[in-house]
């Protein structure tokens, strides 16, 4: 198990040693005080994808929330992780754990 400590939204990409684009779909909930976000990381080496769910609470100061790796493909098919996040002005701090389970051969 590896610990995930850092700043900015690309922390999971930095920890995993990947680079490439990311997409984010945002669904506001609770009259704008909560948002559910789905982040898809797409490594530039075409090794798979990683999908992260985030729930962010904007009524808190600073805004905070939780993240969880919900799926992956290719090299990231067995990746799991979760943690917390805070969003102080002009940055994002993410903490938690990422675990890559080895596939059991048939």
Gist?
This protein has 106 residues and is mainly beta. The chain has one helix spanning 11-16; strands at residues 2-7, 22-29, 34-41, 50-57, 64-72, 79-86, 93-100. It has one helix and seven strands; from the N terminus they run βαββββββ.
What layout of secondary structure does this protein have?
Layout: E1 2-7, H1 11-16, E2 22-29, E3 34-41, E4 50-57, E5 64-72, E6 79-86, E7 93-100
Antiparallel strand pairs: 1-7, 2-3, 3-4, 4-5, 5-6, 6-7
N- to C-terminal distance: 24 Å
The ordered string of helix (H) and strand (E) elements is EHEEEEEE
Low-confidence stretches: 1-11
Quick one: biggest sheet? Answer: 7 strands, antiparallel
Protein architecture, described:
With 106 residues, the chain is mainly beta. It has one domain. The chain is 6% helix and 52% strand. The chain is built from one helix and seven strands; from the N terminus they run E-H-E-E-E-E-E-E. It has a seven-stranded antiparallel β-sheet. The longest helix has 6 residues, at 11-16. The chain is elongated. The two termini are 24 Å apart. 12% of the residues are buried. Residues 1-11 have low confidence and may be disordered.
């Amino acid at each position: 198990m590896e610990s995930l400590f850092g700043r900015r939204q690309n922390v999971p990409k930095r920890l995993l040693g990947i680079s490439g684009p990311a997409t984010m779909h945002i669904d506001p909930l609770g009259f704008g005080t909560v948002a559910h976000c789905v982040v898809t990381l797409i490594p530039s080496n075409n090794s798979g994808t990683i999908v992260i769910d985030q729930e962010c609470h904007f009524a808190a100061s600073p805004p905070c929330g939780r993240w969880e790796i919900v799926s992956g493909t290719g090299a990231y098919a067995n990746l799991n992780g979760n943690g917390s996040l805070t969003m102080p002005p002009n940055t994002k701090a993410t903490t938690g754990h990422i675990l890559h389970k080895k596939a059991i051969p048939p």
